[in-house]
Structure formats: structure tokens, C-alpha cells
């Protein structure tokens, strides 16, 4: 009698422990797809998909750093229009204002675009996808970066007495110069200076321009020295979550942002980490139920089965190909494929012979 009570109590304790374990292991920070739906969170703004951790409304984004403004079906990050947001590469592609500095013939400054300050407290300008670029023939373009109390300046200079040294179509260093973006550049300030207020070059180059631009999104043209009308150009921002390494982030389940079936990656360009679905899974890794198994059999581009209807989906991003009756082999177009069984060949041969 006593023993059986103890056994029952023991089972109860065990069940309780199980419940606790389950509760703890599911209490991760990443919200579910359903939770976002329940909050009526906007999934897109105009043509641009807004994936979590980004969101348009309060309670739909991870925190205020991931808030997007959706105005008249156009998304903005701060005052910068957004082209797209990717959770695969943890990138935010925005249209960034160009700095310009123009002079009249006698060297008096005309328009002066002072809105060249960029505040990115948590994210960094992609150092691999962008270049700092300055255009002009009496031009010193600088980008000053600041982090806590430290500041640093980089940039490039271009001087030319006339346009004969300037290559059309190439940012060669004369008329147009470029420099790399260092890692971890968040807040920054772009400024332009000239040596002689463009007085020596005014007839073909009255203005200087400077900007950070996605490589491949800007092609220099000689005509830009006279007139460059673009107001904004694309720039890639690297985003991440948290401000710790993966190792430290994982110890705090309450703030760990990666969902199920995903891995954590330390960020290379600044603090924090990014999440990626496991191989064979796809979806938004920042949602707890975002990473879903890929069924390779549903998409004929994803499997190499010779007979698409003989594809069998397997867990962990795998699948097996089968052969039709009377054939054998691995069924893969990049493998053995399917070969007719011996007796079938004989049948066919006999069949031919009889005919
Ligand atoms: C956001 O969530 C908090 C706490 O759950 C709640 O008090 C607040 O009303 C919510 N805001 C919106 C806009 O739903
Ligand atoms: C939305 O955009 C319009 C014009 O594009 C502008 O007048 C308005 O101030 C914007 N509203 C907000 C909240 O930014
Ligand atoms: C994002 O926008 C750029 C430029 O418009 C485009 O080249 C790229 O394919 C887009 N990426 C995604 C994931 O939509
Ligand atoms: C340039 O601007 C200055 C100041 O506005 C003015 O005094 C000067 O006459 C202008 N020069 C020319 C050539 O327009
Ligand atoms: C040259 O430009 C600077 C501002 O860029 C201005 O302060 C200075 O007065 C200009 N010099 C002349 C001679 O106009
Ligand atoms: C441009 O304007 C800003 C602020 O109005 C000023 O600090 C800066 O010196 C100006 N630059 C030039 C070249 O006039
Ligand atoms: C920044 O500078 C202030 C005063 O100059 C100093 O008190 C503070 O400790 C510095 N912070 C860092 C992170 O260096
Ligand atoms: C450029 O300047 C050089 C020397 O000042 C001159 O010989 C040449 O003709 C100029 N070329 C053009 C296209 O103005
Ligand atoms: C890291 O993030 C936490 C929570 O958002 C914040 O309290 C803390 O100050 C941050 N630490 C640094 C070094 O940014
Ligand atoms: C997928 O299955 C094939 C054969 O069934 C096996 O050779 C391969 O290692 C598997 N791949 C993974 C990632 O499990």
C-alpha cells in the first residue's frame, strides 16, 4: 500500500518535472507565426515583405530598433526608403541620400546638403557589399565613423584639371574615387571638402558628391561631373539581433532570438548574432515555428529523381528516389538512374524477335 502510494507520488513528481522541462524548453523569445497573426501584424508594406524581427506596429517587431514606418504603402527605416529586408542574409537594403556640395562660378557655396549624418545605433553598414564613393575633380570626400567615444575618418580624394584623365564608365580614382568601408560602422557622418571651391574646374565640374553605395548599383559616367541628378542610391545595412555572442545568448533562453530548427551565428560586422534554418529547412528563423522542413519532392527543381512521382521525402532535408516496377537503381539523374531488370530486357528482346 505505502509502496504503491510512493510509486504514484514518484510518477507525479516525474510528470511534473517533465512538464517543467517542456515549459522551459519552449519558453524561447521567438514569437510564433500565430502570435503575429493574432496581433494583426502587417506582413508587408506595399511590395516589400516585412519579416520579423522587423515590424510595422508596436509589439510586432523585436524592439524599437526593428520598427518600420509604412507610409502610403512605402516602407521607411528612419527617413530612408526600404527596398527590401532579407532574413536569409540579415540585410536591409535602403535608399540613402547623397551628399552634394556645389559652387557658383566665383567659388561661393550654393546648395549644401547637410543631411549626410546617419544614425545606426544597432546595425552596421555592410563592409562587404558597399563602397564609399566620391565624385568630382576638386573633391575630398570623408566618412567619419563614431562608436562610443572613439571616432575615425576614412575616405578618398580626386583632383583633375580637366576631364581628359577621367575614364567613362569606371570609377578609376580620377573624377571618381572609392574606398572600402571598415567593419562595424554604425553611426557615421559623410562630408565633402574642396581645395579651390571648384573655381579651376567649374566649367565642367561645379559640384562634388559623396555617398555609400551598394557595389554594382552605381556606374560612374563622365557626365556626372557636370550634372548628377540622383538624390538617393541603394545601400546595404547588416542587421543582427542581441548584443552578445551566440554562446552567451543561448544561456539566456528568455532573450535567445533563434527559433526551432535553426542555428545561431556570431555576427562578423558588429555586435550580436544572426539565425539560420538548418540545412533542409526553410523559413524565417527568427520565428519559433519559422523553419519548416523542405519537402524536396514537392519541387522538381529540388530533387534529382529521374521519375518525379517516385520521390519520397525524408527528414533532415533528404529524399529518396525509387524506380518504377521492373527497374532498379538509385533513381537519380545524377546517379545510377533506373535500369530495366534483366528479365524485362529478355522479355523485350523476345518480344522484338517474335515481331
Ligand atoms: C503591446 O503590448 C503591451 C504589453 O503586452 C500592451 O500593454 C500594449 O497595449 C500593446 N500595444 C499594442 C499597440 O498592441
Ligand atoms: C507620409 O508621406 C506623405 C507624403 O509622401 C507626407 O506628407 C506625410 O507627412 C508622411 N507621413 C508620415 C507619418 O511620415
Ligand atoms: C532586393 O532588392 C534588390 C534591388 O532592388 C534586388 O536586386 C534583390 O534581388 C532584392 N532581394 C530580394 C531578396 O528581394
Ligand atoms: C556667386 O555667389 C556670390 C554670393 O551669393 C555672389 O556674390 C556672386 O556674384 C556669385 N557669382 C556668380 C558668378 O554668380
Ligand atoms: C569656399 O567655400 C567655403 C565653403 O565650402 C566658403 O566658406 C568659402 O567662403 C569659399 N571661398 C570663397 C573664396 O568663396
Ligand atoms: C553646410 O551646412 C552645415 C550646416 O548648415 C555647415 O555646418 C557646413 O559648414 C556647411 N558646409 C559648407 C561647405 O558650406
Ligand atoms: C567617454 O568619455 C567620457 C568623458 O570624456 C568618459 O567619462 C567615459 O568613460 C568614456 N566612455 C568610454 C566608453 O570610453
Ligand atoms: C587638358 O589639359 C591639358 C593641359 O592643361 C591640355 O593640354 C588638354 O588639351 C586639356 N584637355 C581637354 C579635353 O580640355
Ligand atoms: C545589451 O542589450 C541589453 C538588453 O537590450 C542592454 O540592457 C545592454 O545595455 C546592452 N549592452 C550593450 C553593451 O550594448
Ligand atoms: C541523404 O540520403 C542519402 C541516401 O539516402 C545519403 O547518402 C545522404 O548522406 C543523406 N544526406 C543527409 C544530409 O542526410
Structure description:
- The chain has 355 residues and is of the alpha+beta class.
- The protein is 14% helix and 32% strand.
- The protein is built from 4 helices and 25 strands.
- Strands 3-4-5-6-17-10 form a 6-stranded antiparallel sheet, with no helix packed on it.
- The site of one 2-acetamido-2-deoxy-beta-D-glucopyranose has 4 residues, from loops.
Widest sheet: strand ordering? 3-4-5-6-17-10
The number of distinct helices, counting runs of at least 4 residues, comes to: 4
Q: What is bound: which ligands?
A: 2-acetamido-2-deoxy-beta-D-glucopyranose
Head-to-tail CA distance between termini: 85 Å
Structural class of the secondary structure composition?
Answer: alpha+beta
Share of helical residues:
10-25%
Shape: elongated
Report the mean per-residue pLDDT as an integer: 86
Organism: Actinidia rufa
GO molecular function: calcium ion binding; kinase activity; polysaccharide binding
Keywords: Disulfide bond, EGF-like domain, Kinase, Repeat, Signal, Transferase
Main location: membrane
Jot down its keywords.
kinase activity, alpha+beta, six-stranded antiparallel sheet, WAK_GUB, binds 2-acetamido-2-deoxy-beta-D-glucopyranose, signal, 355 residues, Wall associated kinase 5, transferase
Amino acid at each position: 500500500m505505502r509502496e504503491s502510494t510512493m510509486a504514484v507520488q514518484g510518477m507525479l513528481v516525474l510528470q511534473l518535472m517533465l512538464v517543467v522541462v517542456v515549459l522551459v524548453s519552449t519558453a524561447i523569445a521567438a514569437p510564433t507565426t500565430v502570435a503575429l497573426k493574432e496581433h494583426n501584424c502587417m506582413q508587408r508594406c506595399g511590395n516589400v515583405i516585412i519579416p520579423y524581427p522587423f515590424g510595422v506596429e508596436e509589439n510586432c517587431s523585436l524592439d524599437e530598433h526593428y520598427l518600420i514606418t509604412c507610409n502610403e504603402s512605402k516602407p521607411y527605416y528612419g527617413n530612408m526608403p526600404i527596398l527590401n529586408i532579407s532574413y536569409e542574409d540579415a540585410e536591409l537594403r535602403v535608399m540613402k541620400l547623397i551628399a552634394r556640395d556645389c559652387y557658383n562660378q566665383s567659388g561661393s557655396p550654393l546648395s549644401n546638403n547637410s543631411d549626410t549624418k546617419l544614425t545606426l545605433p544597432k546595425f552596421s553598414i555592410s563592409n562587404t557589399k558597399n563602397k564609399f564613393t566620391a565624385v568630382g575633380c576638386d573633391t575630398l570626400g570623408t566618412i567619419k565613423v563614431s562608436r562610443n567615444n572613439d571616432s575615425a575618418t576614412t575616405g578618398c580624394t580626386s583632383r583633375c584639371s580637366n576631364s581628359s584623365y577621367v575614364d567613362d564608365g569606371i570609377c578609376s580614382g580620377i573624377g571618381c574615387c572609392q574606398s572600402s568601408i571598415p567593419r562595424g560602422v554604425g553611426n557615421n557622418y559623410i562630408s565633402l571638402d574642396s581645395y579651390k571651391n571648384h573655381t579651376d574646374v567649374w566649367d565642367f565640374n561645379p559640384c562634388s558628391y559623396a555617398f555609400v553605395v551598394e557595389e554594382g548599383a552605381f556606374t560612374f559616367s563622365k557626365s556626372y561631373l557636370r550634372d548628377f541628378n540622383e538624390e538617393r542610391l541603394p545601400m546595404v545595412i547588416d542587421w543582427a539581433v542581441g548584443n552578445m555572442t551566440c554562446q552567451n545568448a543561448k544561456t539566456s533562453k528568455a532573450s535567445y532570438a533563434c527559433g526551432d530548427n535553426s542555428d545561431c551565428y556570431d555576427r562578423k560586422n558588429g555586435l550580436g548574432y544572426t539565425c539560420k534554418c538548418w540545412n533542409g529547412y526553410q523559413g524565417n528563423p527568427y520565428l519559433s515555428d519559422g523553419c519548416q522542413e523542405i519537402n524536396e519532392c514537392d519541387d522538381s527543381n529540388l530533387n534529382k529523381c529521374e521519375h518525379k512521382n517516385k520521390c519520397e521525402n525524408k527528414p533532415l532535408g533528404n529524399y529518396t528516389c525509387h524506380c518504377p516496377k521492373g527497374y532498379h537503381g538509385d533513381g537519380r539523374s545524377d546517379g545510377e538512374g533506373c535500369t530495366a531488370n534483366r528479365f524485362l530486357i529478355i522479355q523485350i528482346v523476345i518480344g522484338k524477335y517474335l515481331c
